[in-house]
Amino acid sequence: MMPKAARLRELLERKEIARIVGSRDALTALLVEEAGFDGLWASSFELSASRALPDLGLLTMAELLVASSHVNEATALPLLADCDTGFGGKINVVRTVQQFEAAGIAGVCFEDKVFPKRNSFLAGQNLEDPQDFAGRIEAGARARRSEDFTIVARTEALIAGRGMDEALHRAHLYADAGADAILIHSKKPTPAEILEFLRAWRARTPVVVVPTTYPHWDLAEAQEAGVSMVIYANHALRASVTAMRDVLGEIHLQGGTGGVEDGIAPMKELFGLTGVAKWEGWSA
Ligand code: SPV
Ligand code: MG
């Protein structure tokens, strides 16, 4: 089978748009694979939320590496790991690349915000100096062992309200520095500014988007406009919060679990997902 890094690269470079999904743990990754998606995203927002922490750059590189490895090991899908700002300066980016690549993870994404970053949908966004950030991307690209290991550079210029010229300037700098793809993030309710970016970018590198605030963008239109990959970054986590709240509320109200039993995954389904039969085969 093709190594995961090569598979992620192929997803970015093929004509057909690829869809990857935020997976905060191994079980979520299994469900993403079962649903037929192309790959996985280890989201700093989801991994923080799963620890009941806000997405403010609180998790260390080692914590994100362990969590990302659990996600990565669960399936054959390639994983793009969200490595926030890269945990410091150039040498921290270098070690991040070394460690994530050694763990068999297909690629990493670094964003051009000042450490500690704030989740893109929170106020108060500070951008890193573009030359400094480009230097980190260049060092990270040099540090990888395999050319297939993907480094995505994410610019938050639009998120920070710095305008299209700044976004394009930064994206070109990061591509010059060796980024394999550009993630252009937006918090607008329509894809208008993403479309403007794509027209000016002229497919210089593959482009990745995170359509959380513009969820109605048609996938075929996004592909036509030049998007290579979309990330559904947080939907599995948000779905499970809603489902857990509903069920826990019902159980508390009813004084028992009888009323929810038919609406939740049977134990047998979890035995299947967790591979009981496969594991029992080892001792047969
Ligand atoms: C994440 O999922 O952690 C992301 C995307 O980085 S966002 O939450 O939009 O910043
Ligand atoms: Mg993140």
From TrEMBL:
InterPro entries recorded: ICL/PEPM, Pyrv/PenolPyrv_kinase-like_dom, Pyrv_kinase-like_dom_sf
Q: Molecular function (GO) terms listed?
A: lyase activity
Q: Which Pfam families match?
A: PEP_mutase
CDD domains from the entry?
Answer: ICL_PEPM
Q: Which domain of life is it from?
A: Bacteria
Family assignment from sequence similarity: Belongs to the isocitrate lyase/PEP mutase superfamily. PEP mutase family.
Q: Which PANTHER family match?
A: PHOSPHOENOLPYRUVATE CARBOXYLASE, PHOSPHOENOLPYRUVATE PHOSPHOMUTASE
Task: Please report the name of this protein according to its UniProt entry.
Answer: Isocitrate lyase/phosphoenolpyruvate mutase family protein
Please name the source species: Streptomyces caledonius
Species lineage, top-down?
Answer: Bacteria, Bacillati, Actinomycetota, Actinomycetes, Kitasatosporales
